[in-house]
Amino acid sequence: MSLVEIKDLKVHYPIRSGFWNRVTDSVKAVDGISFNIEAGETYGLVGESGSGKSTTGKSVVGLEKVTSSSIMYKGKDITKKANRKSLDYNHDVQMIFQDSLSSLNPRKRIEDIIAEPLRNFENLSKDEEKLRVLQLLDIVGLDADALYKYPHQFSGGQRQRIGVARAVATNPKLIIADEPVSALDLSVQAQVLNFMKKIQREFGISYLFISHDLGVVRHMCNNIAIMNRGRLVEIGTRDDIYNHPLHIYTKRLLAAIPETNVNDRAKHRANRLAVEEVYREQQDKYYDDEGKAYPLVQISPTHSVALPEDVAKELILKEGEVQA
Amino acid sequence: MWKTILRRVLIMIPEIIILSILVFLLAKAMPGDPFTGSINPKADPAQLHHLMKINGLYDPWYQQYWNWVVHLFHGNLGNSYQYQEPVTRLISSRAVNTLWLALFTTILTYCFALPMGLYAAKHEGKLPDSIIRVYTYVTYCIPFFVILVIGVWIFGYVLGWFPTTGSISSTANPGIQSIGSRFYHILLPGVLGALFGTVNVVQYLRSEVIDAKRSDYVRTARSKGVPEKDIYKHHIFRNSLLPIAAFAGYSITGLLNGSLFTETVFSYPGMGLLFINSISYRDYTVITALVLIYGILNLLGTLLSDIILSIVDPRIRIE
Amino acid sequence: MGSSTQFLNIKDVSTAFKINGKYYDAISHINLEVHHDEILAIVGESGCGKSTLATTIMGLHDPAETKITGEVDFEGTNLLKLDEAGYNKFRGAKIGMIFQDPLSALNPLKRIEEQISEVMTYHTNFTAEQKHKRVLELLDQVGIVNPERTARQFPHELSGGMRQRVIIAIAIACKPDLIIADEPTTALDVTIQAQILDVLRDIQKENHAGIILITHDLGVVAETADRVAVMYAGQIVEEGTAEQIFNTPKHPYTRSLLRSMPQRDNENDDLYVIQGNIPSLQRMPHDGDRFAPRIPWVKDSEHEAEPTMHDIGDNHKVRCTCYKNFEFPDETGSVKL
């Protein structure tokens, strides 16, 4: 059984208009996505701004009011608040945010910030609690004197590690990481990513890693989902997505990642322009009449793509020919 | 936009009804009655009883309220017990006086405050800024009625330059002379009010301008080669005055509230003085009418502010 | 760069900020040249001084809070010696600037047309009609589909990518020789980023401008730049063509940065982590190699006492001598946490 099963998640925000200010329409931030999270695995959720990836993350952790869906954890639907409470859901599922400065309370000391989830979920004595916080600081590579400092006294990378320490304080089973490194410098980013991998190895945590950076996602995630306009357009393993992308949107994203290989600059650019061309011309083939992505079709045990079946088959054939 | 305004006005109706009930009940809950103090203490209690009865003061509160509302729709707010004249006439004559004084004071306040705020922000941290800051804080710290009393004493009694009571000289002929006389009466309270009422606008504008000075779009303007003088004129001042303009919408409707201190010290027959007097004389009809008017004006002021803001700021659209 | 001509020469420029009454160098002794028809990328992490260099060239610093020394020679004029009015003849006209956050860089209360034509008001004799025509032409040039409509809109009505195109239109309105782009795509999605970089490249070709592209993103550099200067702690540590920097990087910092990037081939490995932290402005080391504390295994004798730039052939320059025998230690990758 999967750790968490998300079924047909929808988050719609109402648009009010007219004289009586009634709900006349809605913004479909997330519009029917389903996926499962297995224990100890890392899932990458990739999309551009406005794709609904952050909303999805917040829904899974219970921070978003979902329009309709079931998110099953230990056999109960945690979109209901009562179930989240009875399961101590947020003991097991924690979140790391992008902006480490604004997500840590500026008036609280690091000791209190890291101890907060412990105080919420575990009955520890003062000494036990302190010991645990010190252990956590040690895990994230900070000295004991950090205990009595405030968030602004740390660098961005250190703060992000404090955010991670807080998230792992309760030994969670799943951590939702929403753009955890996109505000960080390259050298600091490397530190945080290594560290996230390390605690995963040690504690068997699952990650839902939300990012717009396909380079980072490739490094971190074995399973990747591409999100576009509130829907999933492609799901697959790292190899499926990066080496055999099928949906035009996936191809487009991949083609746009800047490559550090200077020698192939011209080739890379030509490829990108070619993909953009196809994207412009064949919109109707990849999206339905309303501009929505099609439902996902499974094309291999690991790989699904949001296309009508015949189109998907045609694409697979074509790719096979190219490779042969 | 008209739709929204109409909707907002409609929403105001239940608000006003609730407000009027509250006002009515509060006035009723006040101890005392309008007659005991004003008739001969030796008068027969039965006579007082009779007075109360013919004025409907023994009816249940909802009955009294209903009568009041019915009269309200006939433009009749009742008679003032104290002045023995219709409340509508009483208030409208006072409202005109207050409007003159408040308008003059407000215009003068902005005339003082805007240049001060802009100048302080432009020379942030330098001497002029410090002087203006000290000035605004000093004026803020001294209680306003103290200033008024001192002002009246020096300029009214000692020097005798300005009148100390009333809104118009009783000997003024209609026409130019009466306008002159009115202006003469509001000059001293107006100037004092403006000189000592600048702190909010000055400090607000100053911080707005300082924010704008450091904003990215001003940096963009600099990198376009726009001279500093024009940057202030076209970018900084304009953008910083925006919230002030919106606030002005609110203060326009506030003009009628009248200033309690100024009108009391100068015995200026405006709304503020009327309000104080009617409370001390338990003049229910006047109190309820005034509070209701203040309430409606406040609601209208918020609406007016929103409308002004949506006109001057393109990011805000009333849909 | 055979046919290109150098028109901007930055000579020994240092910029110091006043903090609590003392001056601290944000950039020190920068030497750089910019040519027509080239994109020079300045790359480094936050706090390395790359943006300070840009604002120094633009003269955007408050003289009361900064001390700038050296010379910025722009076609024979030393910009640093100009007064406000003199500088304004260059800003907007001969130098255009593109900023990181396109929303805050535009005045929220003015229509796009007004914001673009403003720059022409100060640098051309165009009539209102000519300005209007030029605005539409510019919007078209930066790839905006419906220029008439966009010209009438306000910044908040446009998408991030559109706003950045408008900023570019402002920067190029007077066909400047030099365009300084400070993190022009950092706030944008990758697909939009690619489009914006394309626009920049096309404009550079059309106008024969020189572009200084300031970024922290090595990928963007590799895709766009002709020449690259790598900055660390206020100094340039390596300078060369894009090929030299990416194919044969020499300076330990450049090599460390490239190794700490998630790449195609290191998916399951830990990333390389540079030891220590970037020094803050107040704690900037002044003697010796500023990068030395972050490669502690390299012997002192490998470093120069006063590191200078060394030309190692074909205009490929490296600071200090420590690059010669530099190797990453064996335990690379598994960094103590």
From TrEMBL, chain A:
<dbReference type="GO" id="GO:0015031">
    <property type="term" value="P:protein transport"/>
</dbReference>
<dbReference type="Pfam" id="PF00005">
    <property type="entry name" value="ABC_tran"/>
</dbReference>
<keyword id="KW-0813">Transport</keyword>
<keyword id="KW-0547">Nucleotide-binding</keyword>
<dbReference type="InterPro" id="IPR013563">
    <property type="entry name" value="Oligopep_ABC_C"/>
</dbReference>
<dbReference type="GO" id="GO:0005524">
    <property type="term" value="F:ATP binding"/>
</dbReference>
<keyword id="KW-0067">ATP-binding</keyword>
<feature type="domain" description="ABC transporter">
    <location>
        <begin position="4"/>
        <end position="254"/>
    </location>
</feature>
<dbReference type="InterPro" id="IPR003593">
    <property type="entry name" value="AAA+_ATPase"/>
</dbReference>
<dbReference type="GO" id="GO:0055085">
    <property type="term" value="P:transmembrane transport"/>
</dbReference>
<dbReference type="GO" id="GO:0015833">
    <property type="term" value="P:peptide transport"/>
</dbReference>
<dbReference type="InterPro" id="IPR003439">
    <property type="entry name" value="ABC_transporter-like_ATP-bd"/>
</dbReference>
<keyword id="KW-0653">Protein transport</keyword>
<dbReference type="Pfam" id="PF08352">
    <property type="entry name" value="oligo_HPY"/>
</dbReference>
<dbReference type="InterPro" id="IPR050319">
    <property type="entry name" value="ABC_transp_ATP-bind"/>
</dbReference>
UniProtKB/TrEMBL annotation, chain B:
<comment type="similarity">
    <text>Belongs to the binding-protein-dependent transport system permease family.</text>
</comment>
<keyword id="KW-0472">Membrane</keyword>
<protein>
    <submittedName>
        <fullName>ABC-type dipeptide oligopeptide nickel transport system, permease component</fullName>
    </submittedName>
</protein>
<dbReference type="InterPro" id="IPR000515">
    <property type="entry name" value="MetI-like"/>
</dbReference>
<dbReference type="GO" id="GO:0055085">
    <property type="term" value="P:transmembrane transport"/>
</dbReference>
<feature type="transmembrane region" description="Helical">
    <location>
        <begin position="142"/>
        <end position="163"/>
    </location>
</feature>
<feature type="transmembrane region" description="Helical">
    <location>
        <begin position="99"/>
        <end position="121"/>
    </location>
</feature>
<feature type="transmembrane region" description="Helical">
    <location>
        <begin position="183"/>
        <end position="205"/>
    </location>
</feature>
<feature type="transmembrane region" description="Helical">
    <location>
        <begin position="286"/>
        <end position="312"/>
    </location>
</feature>
<feature type="transmembrane region" description="Helical">
    <location>
        <begin position="9"/>
        <end position="27"/>
    </location>
</feature>
<feature type="transmembrane region" description="Helical">
    <location>
        <begin position="241"/>
        <end position="266"/>
    </location>
</feature>
<keyword id="KW-0812">Transmembrane</keyword>
<feature type="domain" description="ABC transmembrane type-1">
    <location>
        <begin position="95"/>
        <end position="305"/>
    </location>
</feature>
<dbReference type="Pfam" id="PF19300">
    <property type="entry name" value="BPD_transp_1_N"/>
</dbReference>
<keyword id="KW-1133">Transmembrane helix</keyword>
Automatic annotation (TrEMBL), chain C:
<keyword id="KW-1003">Cell membrane</keyword>
<dbReference type="InterPro" id="IPR013563">
    <property type="entry name" value="Oligopep_ABC_C"/>
</dbReference>
<dbReference type="GO" id="GO:0005524">
    <property type="term" value="F:ATP binding"/>
</dbReference>
<keyword id="KW-0813">Transport</keyword>
<dbReference type="InterPro" id="IPR027417">
    <property type="entry name" value="P-loop_NTPase"/>
</dbReference>
<dbReference type="GO" id="GO:0016887">
    <property type="term" value="F:ATP hydrolysis activity"/>
</dbReference>
<dbReference type="InterPro" id="IPR017871">
    <property type="entry name" value="ABC_transporter-like_CS"/>
</dbReference>
<comment type="similarity">
    <text>Belongs to the ABC transporter superfamily.</text>
</comment>
<dbReference type="InterPro" id="IPR003593">
    <property type="entry name" value="AAA+_ATPase"/>
</dbReference>
<dbReference type="InterPro" id="IPR050388">
    <property type="entry name" value="ABC_Ni/Peptide_Import"/>
</dbReference>
<dbReference type="Pfam" id="PF08352">
    <property type="entry name" value="oligo_HPY"/>
</dbReference>
<keyword id="KW-0067">ATP-binding</keyword>
<dbReference type="GO" id="GO:0015833">
    <property type="term" value="P:peptide transport"/>
</dbReference>
<dbReference type="Pfam" id="PF00005">
    <property type="entry name" value="ABC_tran"/>
</dbReference>
<feature type="domain" description="ABC transporter">
    <location>
        <begin position="8"/>
        <end position="258"/>
    </location>
</feature>
